RING-type domain-containing protein (Penicilliopsis zonata CBS 506.65), 138 residues
Amino acid sequence: MPPDLQGIIITLCVGLGVFLFILVTVILFVWVLPRAPNDDPESKLAGSTTDENLSKLAKVAPKSCLREWWATQKEKMKLTEHDTNFVCAICLDPIAESASIHALKCNHVFHDQCLEEWFLHFHFTCPLCHAAFYDADA
């Protein structure tokens, strides 16, 4: 192999090695290394009792009866009485008209116990559309 070609190959290999090293380093810092503990949303709720955490949920998604909530919403949404088949996306069971629910800002509704369990496991977005309903930093 001519010396010029050998030098070019060595230069390319060294350059590729440096590029791969930088790429792996960036991936480690961005995706693999854990966040600082004070940035963790779980740490915002972890120090509180269950009742305190549920009161935080009640501020952003108060409990109500499905029948009462639906009476106020169907006019806003211009829907009919026939649009009353609600299913909880967490447990996949139908929601009875007399059931206690939490309604989110995105107008998705869930059984009260289902959303409370969801929230207490540090899920702060709607299970259906993933819209944030609670800001742990606020």
